Structures are given as C-alpha cells and as structure tokens.
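FAQ: What does the model actually see?

It sees only this:
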Amino acid sequence: MRTIDDYIDAAQHLVPAPVILAKLPPLLTKANVDASQIVELISYDQSLTGNVLRICNSAYFCPDPPIDNLQYAVVRVGFRLIYDIVVSVVFSSTLRGAKSSDYLKANQLWDHSVAAAVAAQIIAGEILADEQTVFTAAILHDVGKIILSQPLAEAGNQVELASAKLLTPIEIEKKLLGLDHAQVGARLLERWKLPEDLVVAVQHHHRPSAANGYQKLTACVNLGDFIAYSLGHGHGECAFDFNERHDSLEILKLSWEQVSQFTDKAAEKLQQVKNLYQLQ
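And it is asked to produce this:
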C-alpha cells in the first residue's frame, strides 16, 4: 500500500510549495506590522507582484489615483486584505489547474475553495475568530484532492462501482487508496512547513470535533464548506454528514437560522469576489 508521502511525491509538480505562505502568517500576529516587511516578501515574486497590483487596481477597489507600487497597495488596501489576495493568487493556478477527471472537474475546485473561504470568513467575523487564518484554512481545505485526482482517475471503473454503491467521496478514497484527501492535504501542509492550526483544520475539516486545540477554526471551515455546496459552488458529489454540521454549530454556539443568514451574506459577497478573482 502506498503511503501519503508516496502520493505527494508522485504529484509534487502539481502543487509546488508556496514558500511565501510560511512567512506571511507570523506577521499577522504583530500589533504594528511594518508594511515594508510585507512588500519585501511579495516583491521577490514578479508574477505575484503583478497579480496583486492588478487586483488592487480592479473595479472592486476603484483606486484613484491608480496603485502603482506594493507599498502604496498595502497602505491603501490594508495588510489583511492584501494577505487574502496573496493567498488567493498563490493558489489560484494550483487549484484551477487540477487535471479534469470524473473525480475532479477542472476549475470547480478553485470555485468551491473560494466560496468556502468567503463563507468561512463571514462566520469567523461573527464569532470574532481570526478571519485571515480561517480564510486560508478554507481555501486550502481540499488541496489533497489534487494529489489524489490522478490515482483515482487511474482506478476508473472501481470509482464508478463504489459510487454506484452510494459511498461518499471520502469513503471511496479510503476504500480504493487506504487514505483520504483530508489526510493527504494535512501532510502536504506539514511538508510546506505551514502553521499547525492550518494543518489540523485541513486534516479534520470533515470532523471538527477531532481538531483538538483548533475546533473553532475547523468548525468555521466545515460550515464554510457546507455553505459553498449549498450555494451551488461544489465539485463532485457532496459528502455531508449532518452530525458534523451539528458538531460545528455546537462548537461555535451558532444556530441553523444564523447559518441561513451567513449563506445569504456569502451569496452577496461572492458576486463581488467573482469579479475580483475572475471566477466564471
């Protein structure tokens, strides 16, 4: 049986390590973060710099005068929103570029991940959690599916037979490969040397109650995932266990009525975000 690292090694070219993402989160904890530190990190990547400036000059921000340098972008837009933009740009090519198959449709993973991140961030704002950490965890929660897309595509008929038996995607992964995308995604984040809270949230995003020490963060991701599917931003079959949702509500001390309100807010926010990140 192949190990998690075997699968990651085989697909490493699909998910290059985002070095910058390991360096940005610590800056979030600083009370008076120095904008020059952020600018320095971003400026080493020409493509990232160009994309950040492109987004900051979009109709969403309506800058006047236009933003022509990163220092000005951080001052005008704010570090926390710049952070969201950087995270989204870093992973857009990876999540959008996943090979299309019956298991994973091209572009749908990116669409779903952004929708889940927007919804989770709205929830985080309500419960006074760290919105940027929640956003990052949610946009990364299904990254393990990219790693498993090829081996599951190679399984072909076996996946179809398992689906016919009404097994959930996670059950299919475990049955055919002996592991699931949440485990793989968490291990990938470990190898990228990302913070423990992100690793745990990705590993347990289908079972927040198991995320010892990070249950609130993971529950936000879990409900964001649910809302994304509810709004039609999904990929593949939805594998909801409503016990998980109840666990998340209990952890966050929220009601289903509030989830409905979050869903409405997420739908409205997504219209803006689609233009911002050029989602179809």
